[in-house]
Amino acid sequence: MLEQLTYLHGQPAVTGVLKAAPSDFVVIEDLGFEPCGEGEHIFVRVRKTGENTAWVAGLLADAAGVNRNAVTWAGLKDRHAVTEQWFGIHLPGKAEPDLSVIESDSIQILEAKRHNRKLRTGYLKGNRFTLRLTGLSGSEGLEARLQAVAEQGVPNYYGEQRFGRGGNNLEAAKAMFGGKRIKDRNKRSLYLSAARSMLFNTAVTARIEQGLAHTLLAGDCLMLKGSHSIFSEPEVTPELAARLASGDVQLTAPLWGRGRLASQHEAAAFEEAALSELAEWREGLEKAGMDQERRPLLLRPEAMSWQLEGDTLTLAFFLPAGAFATSVVRELIDAREADHHGEAHAHSGE
């Protein structure tokens, strides 16, 4: 899927390996708040190595003596990684369970604290990543590319993981839009997300291909930094251009759904044209009840730092919730993921 998408900084020449070992991909989740200490829910921070998020959730449910659907998480995390993430267990009126029974060499309970609200998907500020890219074929041009990514960002593409192995989530979405009934709500949600993400990636790559990644079009829908509120201005003004250059506002692309595009005039026409050949996908999302939303066009890694030693690049950065670390890596090196018995996994960017 991603091979067909345009690079912001040109296709990288350096090759390497991502996730040769779980310790090469470290993710630390940041909720953006502290559990308050009281309420019906227990928030549990877990460090896991080489373990699947849903599997750990099941272990927590068994340990707490609750149904599996009483355990939630803010975001899926890659199995082939070392991750620190939060789980929520709904335990109204029950004593604190002994969760230490699930601990092992690959699972550690870091803390557990009560909270008065359910932990929902996306209920987090973001993730701190520390990645090791090994077996680099060289380093020519890599330092300049790292600087460019730190300053200008990367396309905010949804990663391969969103689309399933071999794009099978998109195939399932297409069948669903063609009339196939999907009873499982989680699967239905997964397929809708894949379809929506594919349309977003298509709109973003069209914009970058035209050299418009940093250029305002009349009627562009802009997102305010911090508040994430959106607005559209019918005309391009020097003030608006200055705000874009300073990072006060960001360009956005559509997450397709019902209703009018939030962009207008030239920008809306551009987005309509970019997605003109995907009418059945657009209609499918509208009929499924999805509403128009927006997502930033570019992704700028925060607090980015790196160290290059021999054939190994160690890279650290923070990404907001919903962003994909693989989209950052993609602009830096042509990375091959180490083969882990051909398994497909959810990504830690969610």
Automatic annotation (TrEMBL):
Q: Which residues form the active site?
A: 78 (nucleophile)
**What Gene3D superfamilies does this protein's entry cite?**
TruD, catalytic domain (3.30.2350.20), TruD, insertion domain (3.30.2340.10)
Q: Which GO terms describe its cellular component?
A: cytosol
Q: Is the Chaperone keyword given for this protein?
A: no
Which superkingdom is the protein from?
Bacteria
Which keywords, in A-to-Z order, does the entry hold?
Isomerase, tRNA processing
Question: What CDD domains would the database entry show?
Answer: PseudoU_synth_EcTruD (cd02575)
Q: State the reactions this protein catalyses.
A: uridine(13) in tRNA = pseudouridine(13) in tRNA
GO biological process annotations for this chain's record?
tRNA pseudouridine synthesis
The UniProt record lists the EC number as 5.4.99.27
Residues of the TRUD domain: 153-299
Enzyme class, first EC level, given as a word:
isomerase
Q: Any keyword Disulfide bond?
A: no
- Name the Gene Ontology molecular function terms of this record: RNA binding; tRNA pseudouridine(13) synthase activity
Q: Which family does it belong to?
A: Belongs to the pseudouridine synthase TruD family.
Its job: Responsible for synthesis of pseudouridine from uracil-13 in transfer RNAs.
- The name of this protein is tRNA pseudouridine synthase D
Question: Source species, please?
Answer: Aeromonas diversa CDC 2478-85
The opening ranks of the lineage are: Bacteria, Pseudomonadati, Pseudomonadota, Gammaproteobacteria, Aeromonadales
